[in-house]
Amino acid sequence: MTLTVAPIGSVEHLEFVQAQRSVSFLQTPAWGRVKTEWRSESLGWYDGRRLVGAGLVLHRPVPRLERHTLAYLPEGPSIDWTGDLSRWLDPLAAYLKAQGAFAIRLVPPLRTHVWTAAQVKAGIADPGVERLMDVPGGRVDPIGAQVAGWLRDVGWLPQSPEDGFGAGQPQFKYEVPLAGRSEDDVLGGMNQLWRRNIKKAAKAGVEVTVGSDLKAFHDLYVHTAERDHFVPRPLRYFETMFAAMSAEDPERIRLYLAHHQGDLVASTILVRVGAYAWYSYGASATEKREVRGSNACQWAMIRDALAAGCDVYDLRGITPTLDVDDPHVGLIQFKVGTGGQAVRYVGEWDLPLRPVMYRAFDLYMRRREYLRGKRR
């Protein structure tokens, strides 16, 4: 039977999300209220009168393209990816083109490859292995691989760069499986350094609490940005994020604050939707790093995710490099200490709906990235 796509209200969208085991927080109605610079809408897929799928679309306006937008579905939509995808994506394309979109960008929430912590560590130790995709023994997820092949065959264009970090969502992530595991299981799966640092924080008297002092978090976050050379988001962004997501579900987002003798030494943000938890943002002090406040925050978030019945704790993006001379390898070395697994996702895919406008958009983005690189 043909599926139809139509706008749905935020209440209906949220009810659909709550009926699933998990949906990305980037596909909740609240996320549309966080991304104030984009126009958002909730769409539903109907089989007759029954709602069978949903997605949050962020419409990105582009200079000089008048009312036309890039229609972006981050880590979505929430549909059945195992069947005939044309039933789902063809009506989506027809609807969005009628609304003025010049292209669609999808980020299917599907894995294509998975590597255990042991396999990643072996790859780092092997001088002949420079990238995750070169690590032998990784598991291929047949559904993700099939979806990626189908998208390519019908004309969707892959957008994920080699380093895994595009303009949107990272293609490579690090995740800690939690389903069916106890705290002792998870702690036992960590490497010796992580276990020692968690114990060191406890012995030093680091106290981790769930709080609401976003100003304290943001001050530490700005300090972290200056030290680690990235551009921080403004305080207002986090205030909007907490207000929108907490209004949707009081358990959706939490701020963790690690103090040592009255000093804030680390702070993190956890997001949870159903059975999936994400480490979203983190900050740490340069002083008192020896008390391991960041490890204490991570352990507190993992324990809370376990208590909430989560299947996965997501440490978010990594680069796929395993070259010990690459400065980015430190990120995966830090995360691999949690045990868990490195994961490659299907990535971002574009479908041009108005090819001339899409080419103009592509040139605009390439020029913007070129100028950004020159400013660095």
From TrEMBL:
Residues forming coiled coils: none
Name of a matching Pfam family: FemAB
Any GO MF annotation of the entry: aminoacyltransferase activity
Keyword annotations: Acyltransferase, Cell shape, Cell wall biogenesis/degradation, Peptidoglycan synthesis, Transferase
An annotated GO BP: peptidoglycan biosynthetic process
Family label: Belongs to the FemABX family.
Identification of the protein by name: Peptidoglycan bridge formation glycyltransferase FemA/FemB family protein
Record lineage: Bacteria, Bacillati, Actinomycetota, Actinomycetes, Propionibacteriales
